[in-house]
Specification:
The structure holds two protein chains of two kinds. Chain A has three domains: about 5-230, Rossmann fold, CATH 3.40.50.300; about 240-285 and about 540-575, no CATH class; about 330-350 and about 370-525, Rossmann fold. Chain A has 23 helices and 20 strands. In chain A, the strands form four sheets. A six-stranded mixed β-sheet of chain A has the order 6-7-8-3-9-10, with helices on both faces. In chain A, strands 16-17-18-13-19-20 form a six-stranded mixed β-sheet, with helices on both faces. In chain A, strands 2-1-4-5 form a four-stranded antiparallel β-sheet, covered by helices on one side. By secondary structure, chain B is mainly alpha-helical. Chain B folds into two domains: about 1-135 and about 240-265, no CATH class; about 150-225, no CATH class. In chain B, strands 1-2 form a two-stranded antiparallel ribbon. In chain B, strand 1 (about 95-100) and strand 2 form a beta hairpin. Classes of the chains: A alpha/beta, B mainly alpha. Chains A and B meet through helix 2, helix 4, helix 5, helix 6 and helix 14 of A and helix 4, helix 8 and helix 10 of B.
Chain lengths: ~575, ~270
């Protein structure tokens, strides 16, 4: 008998029309590392809840380590066997102090106090959070909170841990931290790991990949096998890692390359092995970001400090000066705490700088604070997870909130709302439904439409695509680019995803410790990968590949960041298929 | 920003106040509160202020932090002192008499005492309890102290767990509120201007999202707690056992003695 067995299970939520899970049978062996992928609403999370026994199937049987999840007598034993880490790090920590939170489960199980102490110390050691044991949980970073949550589950000494999109709300460093912890648990503690994720690079680390589509298992195999089938993956609303996509493109161009390559080094090895000639395309000296032209945004010696005179005092923006040109898409990158979000809040006067001046279209925004309304309609600011700001009875009214506040009425208001809805891909037919009854991805679009309806000439977006599935990502970002093109607006996009930045931005602004670390055209910044690594940032997978190939002398430039350009450069040096 | 508030915060430290058993600290703060209420003369208040200052110094918490925590009380302090100065009628001649305004010595006395009482109570109980006791210890202590009520079928454990969670979620909810306010401001919402009714209406776009998210959090937290085998207070143990140390009793008795001495000053009065 396998460790986890799902035997022909079906499940439907009382309020939904159709079943969420349809006749699924899966067997998972002990000590394996399985990843479940699928677009939003494909039934991944429901499946995880069914394995844990939080939900019970309508038909069929789920057994974990021989325990039937529907058996009330072995309920507690099941909970201890199979733990679960959830998406939002804040909503699963019970106590205010790290070690007290980790102690929560053993306390519930009635373990003797002395032994709890030992368990807590052990578990914090395993996830590498020992030095934080007396810290307040709310002062930790997202990644650290998730590690505390993992320790809290470990304290029950489970045989299996399920991660339900546990990395979705984290920055790249936090994500890597959690993924490393997870791999370590699997390797060193022999814990069976099941993880649900939208990040294909994470999925590539697993032994086995299960692809869910419309409540059924659509594909099941090793990540290599599944990612090898690029067309199918795209059909199911997913993407593949950039490297895999590049190989697929090269194959389409007639090159004789292997399928299902997932990692950068692997690709570099393969190309080195089969290459014919050496690419002689030399890097042209790319122009520096031009500072001429009208500035949409200009900051002059701006400083922002938080919590002056308290123990939590810190400088968020440190004497920063920058000019951002009109009509460009600028990617703003930097690790958490580098001042990105503070920078965004400065631009429409939500935050007053402690020193320095902020100019929007040449106007000092703090000269006439009474006219801040005008600035706010000019600079649209979309916050992280904007769906949390929805409040009206209907989607239409919610989108209309911004323009109404600006004094727009009647037909013009109607036009504002409908135009914005169109840019964000919201169907006219749902405008009269409640914003609380639609899916997460749709809520995100409604919230963005609420800002776009104000017709801002500068759009500032804080992680617009965070937590969305690949298809939702492309839709949301595509709509924003459409708006940018049609209105010639300036866009400042804060993102942790170097792939998104590479795909959409014209220029990149790198921030570190509240200062500008670098500013320039995309190719110029990615070429300087050394500086990015030092700043704790990453480059797109494609750029990594070219850096590696350049080291091995196979190509002469590394300022490549799009798959198209990469394929163009590699195609001539690779052997053709006969 | 609202993030700056220090109310209800815990500052980890190593002073003997930090180390005292939380149950003892609750008793000590009760003694302290009662003593403050029994103060009747300026000398007694002076003695109480000295006790409070000593507590602050022992706790190692900076004076600045204490003064900051008093800031939100400024309005209440001003309001009550104005009322008692102008509206208290005392015996004898008024100190100042101008048209319909009469200020009596009694009024000034009450105003000054009211301010001193508030300052002592707030800074004293903050130093003894919230600033120096981890919220977990505090709720734990309350749970233990209220244990006898269990026999009267009062759900003491549930109450304590509710408090633990409430304390835990103060910071996330404050941050969330801040974010929602900013987001609605960015959409042109105006909270500062307009008539009172407009301003109350302007709160709707903040309150609804806040409630929606609080309910969502509650649901997720409940699920997470269930996953960690929480089934209520029955059969639960605690990692940190509360144990009285001899020092705790010394602190309690010593403190009680100091308070009694301070109250003896009720017999002396300098001016008021």
């Amino acid at each position: 008998m396998s460790f986890i067995e799902l035997d022909n299970i079906s499940f439907s939520y009382p309020e939904s029309d159709g079943p969420t899970i349809k006749n699924v049978s899966i067997k998972i062996e002990q000590g394996t590392f399985t990843v479940i992928v699928g677009h939003n609403g494909s039934g991944k999370s429901t499946l995880a809840n069914l394995i844990c026994g939080i939900l019970l199937p309508n038909s069929g049987k789920v057994t974990v380590d021989g325990l039937d999840t529907s058996n009330d007598d072995t309920f507690e034993q099941l909970r201890r066997t199979c733990g679960m880490v959830f998406q939002n790090p804040d909503n699963q920590i019970v106590a205010s102090i790290v070690e007290e939170d980790v102690a929560f489960a053993p306390e519930n199980l009635g373990v003797e106090p002395k032994r709890i102490r030992e368990i807590v110390d052990e578990c914090l050691e395993i996830v590498g959070m020992s030095e934080y044991k007396m810290h307040s949980t709310s002062k930790l970073s997202g990644g650290q909170k998730q590690k505390v949550a993992v320790a809290g589950i470990l304290a029950m000494s489970p045989k299996c841990i399920i991660f339900d999109e546990a990395t979705a709300m984290l920055d790249p460093k936090g994500r890597k931290d959690v993924m490393d912890t997870l791999a370590k648990l699997n390797r060193e503690q022999g814990i069976t790991v099941i993880t649900i994720t939208h990040y294909m690079n994470e999925a590539a680390l697993a032994d086995r990949m299960i692809l869910m589509n419309k409540g059924t298992v659509a594909m099941d195999g090793s990540p290599r096998e599944l990612f090898g089938e690029v067309e199918k993956m795209v059909e199911y609303g997913l993407t593949v890692p950039q490297i895999t996509e590049l190989m697929y493109e090269l194959e389409k161009l007639g090159c004789d390359v292997k399928r299902g390559i997932l990692h950068t080094l692997e690709a570099a090895d393969h190309i080195e092995e089969i290459h014919g000639s050496i690419s002689d395309d030399e890097s042209k000296s790319s122009s520096t970001a031009s500072l001429s032209g009208d500035a949409a945004i200009e900051l002059e010696n701006v400083t922002v400090e938080y919590g002056k005179g308290t123990p939590f005092h810190r400088v968020a923006i440190d004497n920063l000066s920058i000019r951002l040109q009109k009509g460009k898409i600028i990617g703003l990158i930097g690790h958490t705490g580098s001042g990105k979000s503070t920078f965004a809040r400065l631009l429409n006067g939500l935050l007053k700088p402690d020193a320095g001046k902020v100019y929007i279209d040449g106007v000092d925004i703090w000269e006439k604070p009474k006219e801040m309304g005008k600035i706010r309609s000019k600079v649209g600011l979309v916050f992280q997870y904007p769906e949390y700001q929805l409040f009206e009875e209907t989607i239409y009214k919610d989108i209309a909130f911004g323009p109404k506040n600006m004094g727009i009425k009647g037909d013009e208001l109607d036009k504002c709302v409908k135009d914005a809805a169109r840019f964000c891909g919201i169907d006219d037919s749902i405008l009269d439904s409640s914003p609380f009854e639609i899916s997460g991805g749709q809520k995100r679009r409604v919230a963005m439409a609420g800002v776009i309806a104000m017709r801002p000439s500068i759009l500032v977006l804080d992680e617009p695509a965070a937590g969305l599935d690949p298809e939702g990502r492309d839709n949301v970002l595509g709509g924003l680019i459409d708006y940018h093109r049609k209105n010639g607006s300036t866009m400042l996009m804060i993102s942790h995803s170097m792939e998104d930045i590479a795909k959409y931005a014209d220029q990149i602004l790198v921030m570190k410790d509240g200062r500008v670390k670098a500013f320039g055209d995309v190719s110029q910044i990615f070429k300087n990968w050394n500086m990015l690594f030092e700043t704790g940032l990453d480059v797109p997978q494609i750029t990594k590949l070219f850096v590696e190939l350049q080291k091995r002398g196979l190509v002469k430039r590394s300022d490549i960041y799009t798959i198209k350009k990469a394929a163009e450069l590699l195609e001539p040096i690779l052997p053709k298929r006969k | 920003m609202i993030k700056d508030i220090t109310l209800g915060q815990y500052f980890p430290g190593n002073s003997f106040i930090h180390k005292t058993d939380a149950r003892m600290k609750i008793l000590i703060s009760l003694i302290f509160l009662v003593s403050v209420f029994f103060c009747r003369t300026d000398a007694a208040f002076l003695a109480m202020l000295i006790v409070t200052t000593a507590l602050i110094l022992f706790s190692g918490i900076s004076m600045k932090t204490i003064l900051k925590s008093l800031k939100p009380l400024l309005f209440v302090i001003c309001f009550t002192s104005v009322i008692s100065i102008f509206w208290t009628k005392g015996e004898g001649d008024p100190l100042i008499s101008w048209r319909f305004i009469n200020i009596y010595l009694e009024g000034v006395r009450q105003a000054v005492f009211m301010v001193l009482r508030l300052v002592c109570i707030v800074s004293g109980s903050f130093v003894i309890l919230t600033y120096t006791t981890s919220p977990m210890d505090l709720t734990d202590a309350i749970e233990r102290l209220l244990m006898p009520l269990k026999y009267l079928k009062v759900p003491v454990h549930d109450f304590a767990m509710m408090m633990t969670i409430a304390l835990r979620f103060i910071t996330p909810l404050v941050e969330e509120t801040d974010r929602i306010i900013c987001a609605q401001k960015a959409r042109g919402a105006d909270f500062e201007n307009g008539k009172l009714t407009d301003r109350v209406k302007a709160l709707i776009p903040i309150l609804i999202p806040l409630f929606v998210s609080a309910f969502k959090r509650a649901e997720e937290l409940a699920k997470a707690m269930e996953c960690r085998c929480y089934t209520g207070g029955e059969g639960r143990t605690r990692m940190k056992q509360l144990k009285f140390k001899p020092g705790d009793f010394v602190f309690l008795l010593g403190f009680a003695a100091v308070c009694v001495l301070a109250l003896l000053a009720n017999n002396i009065s300098f001016v008021l």
